[in-house]
Amino acid sequence: MRVSARALVITLLFCTAVYSISYAADAHLDEKELRQLIIGNTVDGANLQGSPFKQFFHRDGAYFTEFGGMVLPGTWTIRPDGALCLMNVASVANPCGITRRSAAGGYERVIDGTLRAKWLKVTSGNALLSSSVLAETVSFKSVTYSVGASSFVIPLAKEGIEVTVNGFLGRPQKTDPAPAVILLHGCSGISGSEIGWAKTLNTLGIATFIVDSFGGRGLAQTCSRSESVNIASAMADAYNALESLAANPGIDRTRIAIMGFSLGGLTAVRSSQIRFQERFAKGPTRFSAHLAFYPAGCHIKLADEERIGAAPLRIFHGAADDWTPLAPCKAYVEGLRKAGKDAALIEYADAHHSFDNVGITLRKLPAAVSPRNCKFVEEEGRIIDAETRSSIFYSSCLSRGVSVGYNADAHRSAMKDVESFLGTVFRLK
Question: How confident is the model at residue 69 (pLDDT cuts 50, 70, 90)?
Answer without folding.
Answer: low
